[in-house]
Every structure is written in structure tokens, then in C-alpha cells.
């Protein structure tokens, strides 16, 4: 690991913060659309509690996944990219070395 | 406490089961309507997680409240009646002594 991979410059941090926020909003928006669909289709208590279980699971997943420590951010971005919440253009301006690491980690997710 | 208050006859058990189910369905239906409203009005992640928190609280409340043991059923019915989920006509056919107990317990909820 080179220094460029672990140290985020000030402009990189700004890009990272925006990218992270965009991914989080996209994923939450997707969860919300699913909740709306489930709520409009639910017909009984079982249907209601399915929404509860779905949201509980998404909350757990989201609490685990969205971790903004710079020491783990490349892994976080890789996962968000693999899952489709982060787009390559969100990271424009980040050093090539970091992008390479993120892409490699994303491939790791794709294979695992 | 007299025997009539604690022992539920077979026909009373049938009425109780239906009343309990009706109250549960009414309350779940009300929760579902609130979820639909919250989901349609939510605009950001905070709005999404409010639905999560609301459902988690309602689930906790519901797990605690809906307890079909005959030893506690008069208290359960009293609470459901006080909260409006159970209607007096749901309990038609239950012994007068039990109804009296349920009404007294409901007044206890109203005062507490």
C-alpha cells in the first residue's frame, strides 16, 4: 500500500464526501420505493410486518455498510460500486491509485 | 375473583378469539395506513428511517400487548377497548361478570 492509497487530500475528501452522500441517498431512495410498493400491496398484518422485517434488515445492512473512516473508505466505495449505488463518475478527481484499488476491491465483491 | 371470571366456556372462547383477531386486524390496518402516509411523504433518508423507527416501536408494543393467555385476557381486552381497537359489540355473548371486569380494567387504563 502506497501513501497515496491511504492519505486522502483535501479535494479528494470533498469528492469522497459527495460520492458517499450520493450513494447513500440513492440506496435510501430505492429502499423507500420498495417500502411504498410493499405498503400499497399489503393486505393483512403479515404484509405489514414484512415491511418491518425488511426495514430492520436494511437498517442493519446500512449501519454496517456506510462507514466513513478513511482507513476503510476504499472498501466501502468498492462495495457501493459493486452494488450499483456509486457510479464511476462520482469518483472523478480521486487519485488513479485509489481508483485502481477500489476497482480491484469491487472485483473481489463480484467474485465472492 | 369468581370462577366465571377466570374460566372461559367454549362459546366464550370462540367469541374471544374472534374479538381478539378483529382488534388485531383493526390496529394493524391503522398502522399500515400510517406507514403508507409516512412513505408517501418521506423525501430523504431521515424520512425513511422514521418509518423504520415507527414500525419497530409498533412491533414492540404489539408483541407486548397481544397476549392470548386466558389468565390475562380480560386485561388485554380492557386495554384494547380503552385504545379503541375492540368494540363493546365484539364481546357480546361473554358473561356479564367478565364484561364488568373488562370495563373496570378499561377505566383503570383511562385513569392511568
Q: Could you name the key traits of this structure?
A:
74% helix, 112 residues, mainly alpha, 5 helices, homodimer
Chart the SSEs and their pairings.
Two copies of one chain form a homodimer.
Chain A: H1 3-6, H2 10-41, H3 45-65, H4 73-82, H5 96-111
What does it look like?
- The structure is a homodimer of 112-residue chains.
- The first copy, chain A, contains five helices and no strands.
- The model of chain A has no long low-confidence stretch (mean pLDDT 94).
- Chain A is mostly helical and 112 residues long.
- Chain A has one domain.
- Chain A is elongated.
- In chain A, helix 2 runs antiparallel to helix 3 and helix 4 crosses helix 5.
- In chain A, 74% of the residues lie in helices and 0% in strands.
- Chains A and B meet through helix 2 and helix 3 of A and helix 2 and helix 3 of B.
User: What is the gyration radius of chain A calculated from CA atoms?
Assistant: 17 Å
Number of domains of chain A: 1
Query: What structural class do the secondary elements of chain A suggest?
Result: mainly alpha
Note the overall shape of chain A: elongated
Average predicted local confidence, pLDDT of chain A:
94
Most extensive interface, chain pair and sizes = A-B, 21 and 21 residues
Tell me the number of strands of chain A. Answer: 0
Number of helices of chain A: 5
What is the N-to-C order of secondary-structure elements of chain A (H for helix, E for strand)?
HHHHH
Straight-line N-to-C gap of chain A = 22 Å
For this structure, the quaternary state is homodimer
Helix content of chain A: over 70%
Amino acid at each position: 500500500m502506497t501513501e497515496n492509497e491511504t492519505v486522502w487530500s483535501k479535494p479528494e475528501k470533498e469528492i469522497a464526501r459527495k460520492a458517499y452522500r450520493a450513494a447513500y441517498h440513492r440506496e435510501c431512495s430505492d429502499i423507500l420505493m420498495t417500502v411504498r410498493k410493499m405498503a400499497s400491496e399489503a393486505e393483512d398484518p403479515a404484509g405489514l410486518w414484512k415491511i418491518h422485517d425488511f426495514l430492520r434488515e436494511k437498517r442493519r445492512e446500512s449501519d454496517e455498510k456506510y462507514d466513513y473512516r478513511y482507513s476503510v473508505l476504499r472498501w466501502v466505495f468498492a462495495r457501493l460500486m459493486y452494488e450499483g449505488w456509486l457510479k464511476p463518475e462520482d469518483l472523478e478527481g480521486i487519485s488513479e491509485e485509489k481508483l485502481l484499488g477500489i476497482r480491484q476491491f469491487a472485483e473481489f465483491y463480484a467474485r465472492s
